[in-house]
Amino acid sequence: MLRYIVRRLLILIPIVIGISFIVFAILSFTPGDPVMNIVGNGADEATYEAKREELGLNDPFLVRYINYMKNVFKGDLGKSWNYDTKVSGELGRTIPKTLILAITSVGLMLLIGMPIGIISAVKQYSIWDNLSMAAMLVLTSMPLFWLGLMLMLQFAVNIKWFPAAFPTEGLGTIKHWILPTVTCMASMMAALVRTTRSTMLEVIRSDYIRTAQAKGATERSVITRHALRNALLPVVTLVGLNFGLLMGGALVTEKVFGIYGVGYLLVNAVTSRDVPLVMGSILFVATCIGVVNLFVDVLYVYIDPRLRSEYVKIKIKSSKKLQI
Amino acid sequence: MGEKILEIENLHVKYKTDESDIYAVNGLNLCLNKGETLGLVGETGAGKTTAALSILKLLPKKIGFITEGSVKLGDIDIINATDADMRLIRGDMVSMIFQDPMTSLNPILRIGEQIAEVLQIHKKDMSKQQIEERVDEILNLVGISKDRKNDYPHQFSGGMKQRVIIAIGLACEPDLLLADEPTTALDVTIQAQVLEMMQELKDKLNTSMILITHDLGVVAQICDRVAIMYAGQIIEIGNIEDIFEGEHHHPYTIGLFGSIPNMNEESKRLKPIAGMMPDPSELPVGCSFKERCASCMEICKAENPEEAYLDTHMIKCHLFDRKNESKTMS
Ligand SMILES: Nc1ncnc2c1ncn2[C@@H]1O[C@H](COP(=O)(O)OP(=O)(O)O)[C@@H](O)[C@H]1O
Ligand code: SF4
Ligand SMILES: [Mg+2]
């Protein structure tokens, strides 16, 4: 297993390099002049040229890319063109917020969404099932920014349970995180509930569930011990996908609540064509998604023993290759 | 004969589906003595599985309903038993072995765990250690090395999986085993092995068994009695001798056996009969076999035949209704 994880991590390196190259190319070849953004419209020719030279923009594209990557491998993500601060510093300021939001919202989603999905499946077509399905439909059709604004208006402005503004420095308190977490969670909840419900329904009808019932197992034990783990694979996939996406920032939530996370940073960097900042963020996001995917795959193998032998097959195949 | 372990009277089971109501079992009568093996044969769709599931009240929830009749396990009235009562019976007093071994085991639990589970549920006084020992013992009984108890179902062949399922069924030494086509999904060579093993274990544990099967050879070999089911009813039942050597038979049985059944002939599978079983959502008036019966009479079209007994042999057909008082059956 360890060998498999290491191999997957090694494969991740060329993938991230590939992504960085593509993004670097897009940034370099889109029209518009990043230098003009920095020095301002009124700057004279000499200042402009000096800045251009300083940023290395007079070098050919490939040279620029290779220089950039050389620094990255040395551990230097460069300086932001706009703020003149270190990219690593900017990321260090934003990543914790993005991580907190991702973990709390995914955690809360699992805590609430899984039980709803399970109960809906077990009590299919009951009032509870119909109600929760209707609620999920409402949730999916609601624009996220609107929900965020409404929550803020109601709970922060009207009844003042929670603060409306997020502090510019630091990570805030628990109270600051509740509304953003709920908003962010709402966007993913419906998919989770529906996936849990439909896979549970499928599993509940399978033969081995009937075998468990024929043993005299209680309904609770049939659900938790036999059905749930079998229904987990699609849920794990979905949660992994959502978590990976959230690493790129929950843009709408961040904007509505004024949380300066990775999403915010990335959008600002792209609009101002701040190449080092965009590249730094992209490297972070791509690595995160890669690692989350790996984590999901490892979890799969842990959940489903059938995949363990698949993995053994891979091992046999690769060892055969070595013999040849 | 010995004490009765199972008594089913006038059982009716209905499936409610979106399109229609399906009458799967229509007035089934059946008795089983302790230690006895009953073969239950009949075409696909005759209601064999439904009848077996009814005994354990495992009919699919909100779809399958027992609408009439009584089922008694010894003194226990199954129809009025609560869910909690049924859970005590399932796996302990009565076990069921399902048709498809490939899908009947939980793919993510070790086979040892799956056997141990039924012991954990019913043998509360057994320690962990004792349960482990019992699992080893029962694996040994069904011919699987105990070293394999930590393996998962996908690591076993179909025949081995069915052995594991039989181990689960017999772990608590039940009084009654319901085996629903336990070998249909297996290779012919494995079928004989598994059946032989089942019979050995059953004799050893003095378990009664209802064996649902298509294989008349198997029936002749290991059953004490045979019941033939058609459209949700038992239309003929009797000892092995009654069915395989007796002179009189229900026209359906004759069709099923391809000729007058004979124990000495090579074992053969059931023969298909021209025509189809009546649509279970619209039961016909009169005898349910009338459409396919060569001996069909006027009365058959109007009246459902009564059960006609002679000693151990019962035939449900107008041919034998009144005549059997004058005619002797052997
Ligand atoms: N879950 C179900 N829902 C609806 N109809 C069913 C269901 N299970 C069985 N039936 C119907 O009940 C009848 C008897 O089926 P079954 O008991 O499986 O017969 P057998 O085991 O003899 O092949 C068939 O017509 C079948 O289509
Ligand atoms: S009752 Fe009539 S139709 Fe039915 S099997 Fe007997 S002879 Fe045939
Ligand atoms: Mg069947």
UniProtKB/TrEMBL annotation, chain A:
TM region(s), chain numbering: 9-29, 99-122, 134-157, 177-195, 231-252, 282-303
Entry-linked InterPro entries: BPD_transp_1_N, MetI-like, MetI-like_sf
Entry keyword Transmembrane helix: yes
Subcellular location: Cell membrane
PROSITE patterns in the cross-refs: ABC_TM1 (PS50928)
GO BP term, pick one: transmembrane transport
Protein's UniProt keywords contain Ribonucleoprotein: no
Coarse class of the protein's main subcellular location: membrane
SUPFAM superfamilies, per database record: MetI-like
Membrane topology: Multi-pass membrane protein
Top-level lineage group: Bacteria
Residue ranges annotated for the ABC transmembrane type-1 domain, each copy included: 95-300
Entry keywords, A to Z: Cell membrane, Membrane, Transmembrane, Transmembrane helix, Transport
Listed GO CC annotations: plasma membrane
Family indicated by similarity: Belongs to the binding-protein-dependent transport system permease family.
PANTHER family: DIPEPTIDE TRANSPORT SYSTEM PERMEASE PROTEIN DPPB-RELATED
Protein name, entry field: ABC transporter permease
TrEMBL record, chain B:
Gene Ontology cellular-component terms listed: plasma membrane
Database matches in InterPro entries: AAA+_ATPase (IPR003593), ABC_Ni/Peptide_Import (IPR050388), ABC_transporter-like_ATP-bd (IPR003439), ABC_transporter-like_CS (IPR017871), Oligopep_ABC_C (IPR013563), P-loop_NTPase (IPR027417)
Keyword terms of this UniProt record: ATP-binding, Cell membrane, Membrane, Nucleotide-binding, Transport
Gene Ontology BP terms: peptide transport
Entry-linked PROSITE patterns: ABC_TRANSPORTER_1, ABC_TRANSPORTER_2
Pfam entry (one): oligo_HPY
Domain of life, source organism: Bacteria
Protein location: Cell membrane
Residues covered by the ABC transporter domain: 6-256
GO molecular function: ATP binding; ATP hydrolysis activity
Membrane topology: Peripheral membrane protein
Gene3D superfamilies: P-loop containing nucleotide triphosphate hydrolases (3.40.50.300)
Keyword presence, Membrane: yes
Classification via PANTHER family: DIPEPTIDE TRANSPORT ATP-BINDING PROTEIN DPPD, OLIGOPEPTIDE TRANSPORT ATP-BINDING PROTEIN APPD
Family annotation (NCBIfam families): oligo_HPY
Protein family (similarity comment): Belongs to the ABC transporter superfamily.
Protein name per UniProt: ABC transporter ATP-binding protein
Organism the protein comes from: Sedimentibacter hydroxybenzoicus DSM 7310
